[in-house]
User: Fold this.
Amino acid sequence: MAHLNKIVIVGGGSAGWICAAMLSHYFQNGPTQVELVESEEIGTIGVGESTIPPFLQLIRTLGINEQEFIQETQAAFKLGIRFENWRAKGDVYYHPFGQIGGPLEVNEFYQCWLRAKQNGHPSGLQDFAPATVMADAGKFMLPSKAQRTMIANANYALHIDARLVALYLRRFAEARGVKRTEGVVTDVVTRPDGGIAKVILRDGREAAGDFFIDCSGFRSLLIGKTLGEPFRDWTDVLLCDRAVALQTENVGAPHPYTLAQAQDFGWRWRIPLQHRSGNGYVFCSKYLSDDEAVAALVGQVQGETVLGPTIIPFKTGMRQRLWVRNCVAIGLAGGFIEPLESTALHLIYKGMDYLLRFFPDLDADPTLAAEYNRRMTVDYEEIRDFIVLHYATTKRDDTPFWRAYQQVEIPESLRERIALFKAAGVLRDGVDDMFRAPSWQSVMEGMGVRPDRYQQLVDRIPLSVIMNLMDKSAPMLADFVATLPSHEEFLRTHCPAAPFKRSA
Ligand code: FAD
Assistant:
């Protein structure tokens, strides 16, 4: 087997530095050198601040101390997403991390709850979700520190400062041997077999390698521009194509959830960190101009502006193949699905995780690439379907944007999932463990999609047992959560970041 001697990463945004950190962790003493080329002049996209729980898996895999990471990157905790105005104006629901209730014998909690609802129980599904109850009360505790309590099965992720995280991972990767080259790539030279041989910088320097990772963002320098891999356009099912982003001073205590508030022509996010908040409006340019979007966002954010507003155009979809010959595209260079469920950073980690699993040698066996492409495509499509679910099930028809969604032909795969769910609350297992049953159940319930019946197996349990469980467990959970520290207090006590200097 001929090992790869050199891997070149083009791009130093979140994608580039996550890839560099992972490679440097695994190849610290190995035969493969890693060089990362990035350009300060071009810069990074500067957004991407809400994560999902597997992000912490990445941090732990790299052997990084979680508390230190939070302190150094001004991070805060995220227990889920609070959706406002999605089903109808005034409607609120949560998509929490972790479990909802606990199973009763072999029966899923959700099925028991459905039976209780059919028998007139007044509880809401989220009354039994520890992460939702904590998020709604502005409380936080690490579930690992509360084993054998009612929040033990909650889960969490982080809100992060994208720039500080990239800097942190850069230090991590450089300390483990990654060579960073500053400069603008102006040319890409291909090999006779069509693979990539080297990239050439504006000042004539070159970075040659056996294998290339395209992390060049929406420019997609290698997989798109050079290799010409076709783009699968999903803008027919996800209509938003622009965002305006704005950073503000914090006002009030930071909430331990991402706010995703539906707007007239898209939706708005709010992501509180320790030193500031990230805000944005994701919108559809067919119905709203940049100026109107900026005005709408500025009119709704709290706190003085720290940075922005910045307009970010994007196109939803992915490259037909993410691994072509000796090049893999990771991050925005490979594809993008709007950030409603904060999945892009996860796809970066996943892309790198699969690459390590199917790691090539100098021959770059095409069967490895084929399997990589199959797995990543399924993940992308599953996320696309999950995001479309939020729009396709809305009752809103108050603006041309929301009315346009009523004409959208939803993907067959999602139509089948919804039909299966409606039949008896059954979920089709995906290949990825990113969004498990509680995620689909939360969004379905939040959007008003409830199964026609529960699974008959639940009838084996006496109704009184189920009703009793529902009667008791929600108040017990609420009472326990009331005893927990607030999110702000938890941050201050356990992982306070140093005061932040804006010029830093
Ligand atoms: P970039 O950050 O654009 O980095 C590209 C890199 O390539 C830069 O270093 C640039 O300098 C370099 N480069 C480009 N061309 C050249 C060249 N010619 N020569 C040298 N260097 C070059 N994700 C989440 O997980 N959660 C979120 O909440 C979230 N919110 C988002 C909101 C919006 C509006 C958008 C658009 C995206 C969001 N994302 C989110 C996605 C997330 O921002 C990206 O997935 C992530 O930042 C990775 O970006 P990247 O590194 O691929 O690209």
